[in-house]
Amino acid sequence: NAGVTQTPKFQVLKTGQSMTLQCAQDMNHNSMYWYRQDPGMGLRLIYYSASEGTTDKGEVPNGYNVSRLNKREFSLRLESAAPSQTSVYFCASSVTGQSYEQYFGPGTRLTVT
Amino acid sequence: AQSVTQLGSHVSVSEGALVLLRCNYSSSVPPYLFWYVQYPNQGLQLLLKYTSAATLVKGINGFEAEFKKSETSFHLTKPSAHMSDAAEYFCAGRGVGGGSNYKLTFGKGTLLTVNP
User: Fold this and answer.
1) Which residue of A65, B9, B28, B95 has the lowest C-beta tally within 10 Å?
2) Backbone angles phi, psi at A82, to 5 degrees
3) In this complex, which of B43, B102, B104 lies closest to A50 when CB atoms are compared?
4) pLDDT band at B81 (very low <50, low <70, confident <90, very high)
5) Are B25 and B18 in contact (CB under 8 A)?
6) Is B29 part of the contact surface with chain A (CB cutoff 8 Å)?
7) Do A97 and B104 touch (CB under 8 A)?
8) What is the rounded CA–CA span in Å between residue A78 and residue A71?
Protein backbone atom coordinates (compact mmCIF):
# COMPACT_ATOMS: atom_id res chain seq x y z
CA ASN A 1 0.00 0.00 0.00
CA ALA A 2 1.28 3.45 -0.91
CA GLY A 3 -1.03 5.05 1.68
CA VAL A 4 -1.68 8.72 0.86
CA THR A 5 0.17 10.17 -2.09
CA GLN A 6 0.40 13.82 -3.14
CA THR A 7 1.63 15.52 -6.27
CA PRO A 8 3.58 17.64 -6.85
CA LYS A 9 6.10 17.70 -3.99
CA PHE A 10 7.21 21.25 -4.73
CA GLN A 11 5.69 24.08 -6.75
CA VAL A 12 6.49 27.72 -7.36
CA LEU A 13 3.72 29.94 -8.71
CA LYS A 14 3.44 33.58 -9.60
CA THR A 15 0.66 35.67 -8.12
CA GLY A 16 -2.54 35.11 -10.08
CA GLN A 17 -1.60 31.72 -11.51
CA SER A 18 -3.76 28.69 -10.87
CA MET A 19 -2.91 25.13 -10.01
CA THR A 20 -4.38 21.91 -8.69
CA LEU A 21 -2.86 19.79 -5.97
CA GLN A 22 -3.60 16.11 -6.33
CA CYS A 23 -4.17 13.59 -3.57
CA ALA A 24 -4.96 9.90 -3.71
CA GLN A 25 -5.33 7.16 -1.10
CA ASP A 26 -5.43 3.40 -1.49
CA MET A 27 -6.77 2.50 1.97
CA ASN A 28 -10.46 2.51 0.98
CA HIS A 29 -11.13 5.40 3.36
CA ASN A 30 -14.37 7.34 3.06
CA SER A 31 -13.12 10.63 4.53
CA MET A 32 -10.43 12.89 3.09
CA TYR A 33 -9.02 16.23 4.19
CA TRP A 34 -6.84 19.12 3.04
CA TYR A 35 -4.72 21.06 5.54
CA ARG A 36 -2.21 23.84 5.33
CA GLN A 37 0.73 24.10 7.70
CA ASP A 38 2.37 27.42 8.51
CA PRO A 39 5.12 28.04 11.10
CA GLY A 40 3.71 28.45 14.59
CA MET A 41 0.14 27.84 13.40
CA GLY A 42 -0.11 24.07 13.52
CA LEU A 43 -2.32 22.48 10.88
CA ARG A 44 -5.45 24.25 9.74
CA LEU A 45 -8.23 22.50 7.90
CA ILE A 46 -9.06 23.95 4.48
CA TYR A 47 -11.74 21.54 3.23
CA TYR A 48 -12.84 18.04 3.98
CA SER A 49 -14.94 15.34 2.40
CA ALA A 50 -16.73 13.05 4.82
CA SER A 51 -17.70 10.69 2.02
CA GLU A 52 -17.66 10.45 -1.75
CA GLY A 53 -19.87 13.12 -3.24
CA THR A 54 -19.75 15.51 -0.28
CA THR A 55 -17.38 18.35 0.59
CA ASP A 56 -17.45 20.91 3.40
CA LYS A 57 -15.51 23.99 4.34
CA GLY A 58 -12.99 23.88 7.12
CA GLU A 59 -11.33 26.65 9.05
CA VAL A 60 -9.58 28.48 6.17
CA PRO A 61 -11.44 27.78 2.87
CA ASN A 62 -11.13 31.20 1.22
CA GLY A 63 -9.19 31.12 -2.05
CA TYR A 64 -9.51 27.35 -2.47
CA ASN A 65 -11.84 24.89 -4.13
CA VAL A 66 -11.93 21.11 -3.89
CA SER A 67 -13.20 18.18 -5.89
CA ARG A 68 -13.85 14.69 -4.59
CA LEU A 69 -13.28 12.97 -7.91
CA ASN A 70 -14.04 9.47 -6.61
CA LYS A 71 -13.48 7.56 -3.39
CA ARG A 72 -9.70 7.54 -3.88
CA GLU A 73 -8.99 11.08 -5.08
CA PHE A 74 -9.46 14.51 -3.54
CA SER A 75 -7.97 17.54 -5.30
CA LEU A 76 -7.37 21.09 -4.08
CA ARG A 77 -7.44 23.99 -6.53
CA LEU A 78 -6.06 27.47 -6.21
CA GLU A 79 -7.81 29.59 -8.84
CA SER A 80 -5.71 32.74 -8.42
CA ALA A 81 -2.73 32.18 -6.19
CA ALA A 82 -1.70 34.83 -3.66
CA PRO A 83 1.52 35.14 -1.60
CA SER A 84 -0.57 34.42 1.53
CA GLN A 85 -1.12 30.91 0.15
CA THR A 86 2.59 30.11 0.43
CA SER A 87 2.51 27.10 2.72
CA VAL A 88 2.95 23.37 3.02
CA TYR A 89 -0.21 21.50 2.07
CA PHE A 90 -1.11 18.11 3.48
CA CYS A 91 -3.77 15.71 2.39
CA ALA A 92 -5.10 13.13 4.83
CA SER A 93 -7.63 10.33 4.87
CA SER A 94 -9.45 8.27 7.49
CA VAL A 95 -12.16 5.79 8.14
CA THR A 96 -15.31 7.78 8.87
CA GLY A 97 -15.86 7.97 12.62
CA GLN A 98 -14.63 9.99 15.56
CA SER A 99 -12.20 7.46 17.01
CA TYR A 100 -10.29 6.85 13.81
CA GLU A 101 -6.97 8.47 13.16
CA GLN A 102 -6.07 10.34 10.00
CA TYR A 103 -3.28 9.20 7.72
CA PHE A 104 -1.21 11.94 6.13
CA GLY A 105 0.53 12.31 2.81
CA PRO A 106 4.09 13.67 2.48
CA GLY A 107 2.98 17.20 1.66
CA THR A 108 3.32 19.75 -1.14
CA ARG A 109 5.53 22.77 -0.53
CA LEU A 110 4.02 25.72 -2.41
CA THR A 111 5.65 29.10 -2.87
CA VAL A 112 3.74 32.00 -4.43
CA THR A 113 5.87 34.94 -5.52
CA ALA B 1 -16.26 24.29 20.45
CA GLN B 2 -13.24 22.21 21.15
CA SER B 3 -9.72 23.60 21.30
CA VAL B 4 -6.34 22.02 21.89
CA THR B 5 -3.49 23.87 23.58
CA GLN B 6 0.12 22.74 23.62
CA LEU B 7 2.17 24.39 26.33
CA GLY B 8 5.64 25.26 25.07
CA SER B 9 6.44 25.69 21.41
CA HIS B 10 9.97 24.38 21.99
CA VAL B 11 11.22 21.81 24.49
CA SER B 12 14.89 20.88 24.82
CA VAL B 13 16.11 17.79 26.70
CA SER B 14 19.34 15.87 27.05
CA GLU B 15 19.68 12.40 25.61
CA GLY B 16 18.49 9.92 28.24
CA ALA B 17 16.32 12.46 30.05
CA LEU B 18 12.56 12.36 30.52
CA VAL B 19 10.47 13.81 27.72
CA LEU B 20 7.26 15.61 28.75
CA LEU B 21 5.16 17.41 26.16
CA ARG B 22 2.03 19.07 27.45
CA CYS B 23 -1.41 19.15 25.88
CA ASN B 24 -4.65 20.48 27.31
CA TYR B 25 -8.03 20.37 25.66
CA SER B 26 -11.32 22.11 26.14
CA SER B 27 -14.45 20.24 25.31
CA SER B 28 -17.93 19.95 26.67
CA VAL B 29 -17.82 16.20 26.18
CA PRO B 30 -15.00 13.66 26.49
CA PRO B 31 -13.01 13.90 23.29
CA TYR B 32 -10.96 11.56 21.19
CA LEU B 33 -7.32 12.65 21.45
CA PHE B 34 -4.27 11.95 19.32
CA TRP B 35 -0.55 12.64 19.32
CA TYR B 36 1.25 12.91 16.00
CA VAL B 37 4.96 13.28 15.22
CA GLN B 38 6.42 15.10 12.23
CA TYR B 39 10.02 14.58 11.22
CA PRO B 40 11.65 17.25 9.02
CA ASN B 41 10.17 17.50 5.54
CA GLN B 42 7.74 14.66 6.15
CA GLY B 43 4.04 14.21 6.81
CA LEU B 44 2.49 13.51 10.19
CA GLN B 45 2.66 10.04 11.71
CA LEU B 46 0.37 8.79 14.47
CA LEU B 47 2.11 8.13 17.80
CA LEU B 48 -0.91 7.13 19.87
CA LYS B 49 -4.59 7.80 20.42
CA TYR B 50 -7.10 7.94 23.27
CA THR B 51 -10.56 6.61 22.55
CA SER B 52 -11.87 6.10 26.13
CA ALA B 53 -10.85 2.44 26.40
CA ALA B 54 -7.99 3.14 28.85
CA THR B 55 -6.68 6.35 30.35
CA LEU B 56 -3.01 5.37 29.92
CA VAL B 57 -2.23 4.89 26.28
CA LYS B 58 0.97 3.38 24.93
CA GLY B 59 2.22 4.29 21.51
CA ILE B 60 5.10 3.68 19.18
CA ASN B 61 8.77 4.40 19.90
CA GLY B 62 8.32 4.13 23.69
CA PHE B 63 5.92 7.07 24.03
CA GLU B 64 2.85 7.06 26.22
CA ALA B 65 0.18 9.54 27.26
CA GLU B 66 -2.29 9.71 30.12
CA PHE B 67 -5.79 11.10 29.77
CA LYS B 68 -6.76 13.07 32.89
CA LYS B 69 -10.32 14.30 32.73
CA SER B 70 -10.03 16.32 35.95
CA GLU B 71 -7.12 18.27 34.49
CA THR B 72 -8.38 18.21 30.87
CA SER B 73 -4.91 17.07 29.91
CA PHE B 74 -3.31 14.50 27.63
CA HIS B 75 0.43 14.92 28.16
CA LEU B 76 2.94 12.88 26.17
CA THR B 77 5.89 11.27 27.95
CA LYS B 78 8.89 9.09 27.24
CA PRO B 79 11.21 7.94 30.05
CA SER B 80 14.46 8.31 28.13
CA ALA B 81 14.98 10.56 25.11
CA HIS B 82 16.90 9.39 22.06
CA MET B 83 18.47 11.60 19.44
CA SER B 84 16.02 10.12 16.93
CA ASP B 85 13.10 11.62 18.90
CA ALA B 86 13.98 15.11 17.69
CA ALA B 87 10.93 16.22 15.74
CA GLU B 88 7.79 18.33 16.01
CA TYR B 89 4.89 16.87 17.99
CA PHE B 90 1.24 17.73 17.55
CA CYS B 91 -1.65 17.06 19.86
CA ALA B 92 -5.06 16.83 18.20
CA GLY B 93 -8.61 16.26 19.33
CA ARG B 94 -12.01 15.42 17.96
CA GLY B 95 -15.39 15.69 19.69
CA VAL B 96 -18.22 13.24 19.56
CA GLY B 97 -21.21 13.43 17.29
CA GLY B 98 -21.64 13.44 13.55
CA GLY B 99 -21.10 15.96 10.81
CA SER B 100 -18.40 18.52 11.49
CA ASN B 101 -17.25 16.69 14.62
CA TYR B 102 -15.33 14.34 12.40
CA LYS B 103 -12.74 17.09 12.01
CA LEU B 104 -9.52 17.10 13.99
CA THR B 105 -8.46 20.24 15.86
CA PHE B 106 -4.67 20.52 16.11
CA GLY B 107 -2.50 22.25 18.65
CA LYS B 108 0.20 24.56 17.32
CA GLY B 109 2.93 21.98 17.84
CA THR B 110 5.96 21.51 20.11
CA LEU B 111 9.43 21.21 18.63
CA LEU B 112 11.50 18.71 20.61
CA THR B 113 15.27 19.11 20.54
CA VAL B 114 17.47 16.34 22.00
CA ASN B 115 20.97 17.35 23.03
CA PRO B 116 23.82 14.82 23.15
Assistant:
1) B28
2) -125, 155
3) B102
4) very high
5) no
6) no
7) no
8) 21
User: Contact, A36 vs A91, CB < 8 A?
Assistant: no
Residues A32/A91, Cβ–Cβ less than 8 Å: yes
Q: Do B104 and A102 touch (CB under 8 A)?
A: yes
- B28's enclosing H/E stretch is none
Q: Tell me the C-alpha distance between A54 and A37, whole Å.
A: 24
CA distance A101 to A87: 23
Whole-number average pLDDT of chain B:
88
**How many angstroms away from the CA of B79 is the closest CA of chain A?**
25
CB atoms B90 and A43 under 8 Å:
yes
The 3-state DSSP class for residue B8 equals coil
pLDDT at A99 over 60: yes
